[in-house]
Structure formats: C-alpha cells, structure tokens
Amino acid sequence: MGKEGHEDHGQPRSLVSPGELSARRAARHRRRAHRAVGVALSLVFAALIVIAAVALTDARSGRVRVLPLPSHTATATKPVVVRHVRPTGSASAREAREVDRVLAHTSYVQLAGRRRREVALTFDDGPGPYTREILRVLTSMHAPATFFVIGRWARLYPKLVAAEVRAGCEVGDHTETHPPLALLSPTAQAAEITEAGQAIHRAGAPNPVLFRPPYGSFDQSTLGIVRQQRMLMVLWSADTKDYTRPGVHSIIYTAVSGGQPGAIILMHDGGGDRIETVAALPRIITRLRQRGYQLVTVTRLIAADPPQSNQPPPHPLSGGI
Q1: % of the chain residues with pLDDT over 90
Q2: Residues belonging to the active site
Q3: 3-state SS record for the chain
C-alpha cells in the first residue's frame, strides 16, 4: 500500500485517488502564490506611505532636497540642503532696473567701478555634480556668487538652479549648448540665448538679466540680440583657468591676486572635474576678505559701482567681432 494509506499522528487517512491528490497540490500552490502576492502588495503600499510622509515633512519644513548626481569622485556625493527663501518678483525687478541703468551707456561689464572694495565670484558651465559642493561652501561662508548656467543642464538638474537662487546667488544665461557664438548665424545665436533663458526660468530662477558668452566668443549680432533682450553681457577681469586643473594653489593665487575693486573672477562649477575649484574656494573667500573685499553678486557689483560710461567697445576673448 502507498503512503496515502498510512496513519499520521494516530488519525487514519482515507484513500485518495492520484487525480484528487494532484488537484489538492495545485490548490495549495495557488494559495501560497496568492499569499506571496498579498505580502508584496502590502510592502509596496507601506513604502509609498513612507515616501509620502517624507515628502510632506520636507514640504512643511521648507527644505530643498537635492538628489545625488552622477560623479566619478566622492566629493560630489554629499547633498546640500539650503534654507528655503521664497524668490520674490521685486528682487528680479530690482536686478532688471540696475541692468537697465547700465545698459543706458554700455552693453557689457568686464570690470565694474573702482570706488568700492567689492568683488564678484562667478561660476560657469553648470549646474553639475560639483554645484552642490560649491553651494555648500558659499552658504556656510555667507558668500553670494553668480552662476552662468547652460540651458540643457538647467533642464536636467532644475533643483540645483532653484537651490542657487535660494542660497542668495544670482543666475545668468550661458546659452543652451555652450557653442562659440561668433561661429553661429544670428538666428542660431538668438535660439541659444532664448532657449537657455526659458530653461533657467522654468527651473525656478528669475528671467536672467545677465549673459555670459561661452569662451568669451561673440560678435556684433550677439551684442544686438542681448541688448534686444535687455540683458547685460558679463565678461571677466580675472580668469583662474580652473578648467585646466592647474592645482589648488594656482587657482587660489590667480583669484586672490586678481582681486581689485570691481573685479569679476571667473571659475567653473560644471564642464568637468572641479574638485580643485571646490578645494580652493574656502581659501579664496577667506583671503579676499582678509584683504578687505566684500563678496557680492554681479548685479550688486554694478548697482553700487557701475562700470565707466566711457569704457571702450567689448573685445572678444576668443576671436570674433
């Protein structure tokens, strides 16, 4: 006799046909599968509740949560949380008025007036993996700066653009794809500038009133387009060449030695490995302050001490015009 006819724990078992035994086994398998599906759905539902609770907590506390971005080094993995400050229309309107005042007598600024010991730190080519680290330094040291943002990166990382504004920094237009504008037709130039401005605004920043040409490349068409859009072209008086990765000490030396009243110092938060720039920034801020300089945004720089009205026409820094 088969196992089906043996006793189990003193209770006799009735004979079961092979067909009925197969049906019972199939039913047990179905019950187990249903239980497994139920457990999985319960876990998913619990996870959704936790995510919703965290999001609600962040929203109520006014924190900005920046998601990790891809990076090849450990320096860009720590997220930065910036205290929420709601952008106001009056701030952007005030910036626009200051730019209009300068546009009345010049189309650009390379070095502001020299009556005040103020310096503007500027960062190009972001946002990117190192933007959060630079923002962390600027925020902790209470040093506002100006970021010239590429449109396609603003579309990819809009939270970082919004974080720049919340940190008290200024956001300018650096074109949609970072081309040398002097090599493009007027129509293509206009598209590059306009699309970047739209991306910046959609990311949560005011409509940009400052523009920086990639590579310092521009021509007469560029100047006409920028003026038509009521933007001031911003060049620079000191180039740290941090994009070449010359070493932390070289970046510090160039930035600090370039400090003078009305200086505009060029650095980068995007476009490549910026670990040296992140490392140099705290010492740049400290040493400039030790020399009596106040760090301000570009708009604040020109509002307090605008460039001379008789400055010569702008000269491209990489050909053109």
Answers
A1: 64
A2: 124, 268
A3: CCHHHCCECCECCCCCCHHHHHHHHHHHHHHHHHHHHHHHHHHHHHHHHHHHHHHHHHHHHCECCCCCCCCCCHHHCCCCCCECCCCCHHHHHHHHHHHHHHHCCCCEECCCCCCCCEEEEEEEEECCCCHHHHHHHHHHCCCCCEEEECHHHHHHCHHHHHHHHHCCCEEEECCCCCCCHHHCCHHHHHHHHHHHHHHHHHCCCCCCCEECCHHHCECHHHHHHHHHCCCEEECCCEECCHHHCCCHHHHHHHHHHCCCCCEEEEEECCCCCCHHHHHHHHHHHHHHHHCCCEECCHHHHHHHCCCCCCCCCCCCCCCEC
